[in-house]
Amino acid sequence: MTRTSFNRGWRVRPKVSPFAQLQAGAGNATSVTLPHDAVAALPRNADAPSGGRTGYFPGGTFEYLKDFEVPDRWRGKRVTLEFQGVYRDAMVYVNGTFAAQRPSGYSPFDVPLDPFLRYGESNTIRVDARTHDDSRWYSGAGIYRDVTLRVTDLAHLGEVRIATPDIDADRAVVEVATRVVNESVETRTLRVRTEIRCPDGEVITRDSAPITLRAGGSGVVRQRLYVPNPALWSVDSPALHTARTVLENSYELLDEETTPFGIRRLQLDPITGLRINGESVKLRGACIHHDNGPLGAATIARAEERRVELLKQAGFNALRSSHNPLSPAMLDACDRLGMLVMDETFDMWAEGKSSFDYSLSFPEWWERDVESLVRKDFNHPSVIFYSIGNEIFETGDALGSEWGRALAEKIRTLDPTRFVTNGINPFVSVLSEVKEMRARSAEVQPDGEGGVNAMMNAGDFMARVSASPMVSEKTEASFSVLDVAGLNYGDGRYESDREQFPHRIIVGTETFPPRIAHNWRLVLDNAHVLGDFTWTGWDYLGEAGVGRLQYADVSPVFEAPYPWISARVGDLDITGLRRPISYYREIVFGLRTQPYLAVQRPEVYGREGFGMWAWSDSIASWSWDVPIGTPIAVEVYTVADEVELLLNGRSLGRATPGESKPFLAEFDLTYEPGELVAVGYRNGVEQGRTSLRSATGPTRLVAVADRTELHADDSDLSFITIELRDEQGNPAGAHDQLVHVTVEGAAVLQALGSARPDSEERFDAAQCTTFDGRALAIVRPRGAGEITVTVTAEGLEPVVLELESLEPDDEPVTAALLALR
Question: Which residues form the Glycoside hydrolase family 2 immunoglobulin-like beta-sandwich domain (predicted)?
Fold first, then answer.
């Protein structure tokens, strides 16, 4: 068997009908390397049909084209394309003939090519994809995940599934279920050989078994192997074993698969909560969308890995995919790095949320998409939950909840080794009743000054509804089909459900970021509450401004106007920089003892801000372009019981954390350049200190690459952080500047941008304006060789970085490869 990347050599252009092509031609196609987002390079405008929901990006229909040679030696082989995701409603044509369709934009699917191929000559594949008012957030469009070409013998391996049902300190039972497919015209007697390697690469056990299959038949070979003294997979020690499965006949190797897997034991009950390998685990969770900020929706493996790395460094140990299945690349990263996963199926069932969304396909396609999800996830130890939906309208309806039962039971037939949940928002589940309640409520007004009150009180209103007996009754059937009750913004039910439903286990599948101290106390105090997944861990494109602060002196609107592009919600911004709330959360989690200093922007001093997903408009800086004496508010996050603030050595007094919010001490002072120091005290003894210094003297341009040696393939990237600093290294972001980036040699500038949430600058341009003195350049290899990256800004000394793109070591040629030559 050969399995090779099929990401290079594509062209993309807007899709037009054959009739239009006759009149005006098809238009020029742009050469691209997958994964690719066709929407990210389109101009945004205030009149985009989906508005701020998709970041004011337009929709569109696109066609991807690729010519490829099909050697004559492939005759009699099975040739398959594996698509990991095409957004959306993909139509695949081979040599002009329809070959496959997939409505879901997030499901992997295979396309058998051999019925359409012309051997010994060039062939063409075309993939059409489209997006139009079909998402509540930025979806991107096109072939935005990897594509792989697989060539096998007619007798070949199908799916390999690995489970570890019986584990103790002395040994682990590893069950390997291998499907073997015989698509030849004769009966074949074959043998499956499996060997398991421990994390250091040593073979620790092996087994073989024969199978005889009739022409056109298939069967499963089950092997039960025993691993002595197993290294267990966990968040803190993500040990990965590898199974190599080989299919052979009496004289040659026909096929092989290498499957990483983890040995770990999951247990669940309302008394001890979630246990992994016998140890209780509380989920410090982050919801994440699928886009990669400046890269758009393109799921390049290194970008996925980097997100997992940075989220784990920020204190998270679990991710919830929102609201669609994670990419295989991100699952691989979670396995390697030790991050737990709640993988989610759908954002809607049969009741849609956008005019042309997946609900139009759900009744016909849901089973195939669930099968695809489980097939993708089964061997990933990081996946511990399947979520069957997010804020589904049908969850409050007795008949509609039948969908949930069908989904849950389908998953259990495919994979009984993991837990099933659903992100149920009790408020959404009774939305029709809520509309009547709002109409009668005196405190929630639809317009004018009442609109301000409505938005400021919406969280409390939602909490009261969620905790009501009406919700208990209407959602009981939907919760009853689950192993774990997922609650979106339902923390008001945590304690009452313990009494009302004593066997109900809860996880906060989506929660308001500012409430983390309150929610985490509920998690710690209630064994039946497994953890908290904040909205969100990483900022994302679309849902423009949902996480921004709004102010009582301005008429509020839920959706921010153009040119807003991002939600402005998340512990990390779209470039990967940790925002102040991330450090606050780390302190709440008990992972940080050092105080953290954040300063509110002077222009918002004294204004009353609100927003259910919003934190204060603050950054870690003491460099401000304001007159001395300007009033300014300072926040200190700390586990100390008292905080002293010093400015240029003078004490400005002490404050007690927790007066407005736990772990938070607040100070009002006037701005004066220099050094600001926060000192935490516990029982009168200094517990830790931190400081911010004003930038002085000339500003320097600083550029640092997260890696200087890259793989010369389509999966790697170098992320280059660009910052304005003074000679001492202090941030100098008071005056943002336009920076230019050029890339020469064996790479291209894949994207460039800042975290500015309302920028009109394009991510595919070679220049951008810093935001708070920071920007991010992303460089992608296009072959082996030297790479030179030059960063310039007017009046500043340029920075030149030297990178290198290296070819991977040649893989040994196996008998399977030789057999195909």
Answer: 163-264
